[in-house]
Amino acid sequence: MSKILIIFLILNFYSPVLSFTKEDIISKMQLTNSLSFNFVQTINDKNENGKCIIKYPKKIWCEYKNSNKKIIVSDGKSLVIKTLNTGSYFRYELNKTPLVFLLDKKYLISKINILEPREIDNKYLNFTFVENNNEINVFFDKRNLTLVGWQTEDIYQNLVITFISSVRINQKINNKIFKLPNNN
């Protein structure tokens, strides 16, 4: 009888902690309208870095600090990747990329709400979900529950790992940055 009571107490002690953490992440996300951050992105063992701004729903602007001077812009419907040095220009429907899920705060909240976090290295909380054959991993700092990155596959099925830092929430943003660049 005492073993059952101990198991019951342990389950009741740990279960609310996870749900409390999950509720805190959701509450923080609900109050977030935009994120500004620095990033390091790894694709096929190649690292790139830069800065990004996300404005919910589904808008992103990123500037890479590499020699090609690449920018990525989404207006919520399309995604453009433009390399300023070489002039290369690629336009995709946003809903054909995994970014459509990462840039949709309501969607992320709905997924986090039904998933249980996985603890990684006693440092991160990870939520993994699969949508339209895209496996998406989203990571939060366990200490302050801030988004710290994600892992997806790009349209060429390359593993893309993005770590973010210096996150600023709800900064004033000039909406003109989300205007898609021209192909010239």
Please tell me about this protein's structure:
The protein is of the alpha+beta class and 184 residues long. The protein has one domain: Lipoprotein localisation LolA/LolB/LppX (outer membrane lipoprotein receptor (LolB), chain A), CATH 2.50.20. 23% of the residues lie in helices and 43% in strands. It has helices at 2-30, 99-102, 105-114, and strands spanning 34-43, 46-55, 59-64, 70-75, 78-83, 89-93, 118-120, 124-131, 134-141, 147-153, 159-169. Strands 6-5-4-3-2-1-11-10-9-8-7 form an eleven-stranded antiparallel β-sheet, with no helix packed on it. Strand 8 (124-131) and strand 9 form a beta hairpin. Helix 1 packs antiparallel against helix 3 (105-114). The model is unreliable at 1-18 (pLDDT under 50).
Question: In a nutshell, what does this entry contain?
Answer:
The chain has a single domain (20-178), classed as outer membrane lipoprotein receptor (LolB), chain A, CATH 2.50.20. 23% of the residues lie in helices and 43% in strands. The chain contains 3 helices and 11 strands.
Could you spell the SSE succession in H and E letters? Answer: HEEEEEEHHEEEEE
| Helix segment tally | 3
End-to-end separation: 76 Å
**What's the domain count?**
1
CATH architecture: Clam
Number of strands: 11
Cα-based radius of gyration, to the nearest Å: 19 Å
Write the layout of secondary structure elements.
Layout: H1 2-30, E1 34-43, E2 46-55, E3 59-64, E4 70-75, E5 78-83, E6 89-93, H2 99-102, H3 105-114, E7 118-120, E8 124-131, E9 134-141, E10 147-153, E11 159-169
Helix pairs in contact: 1-3
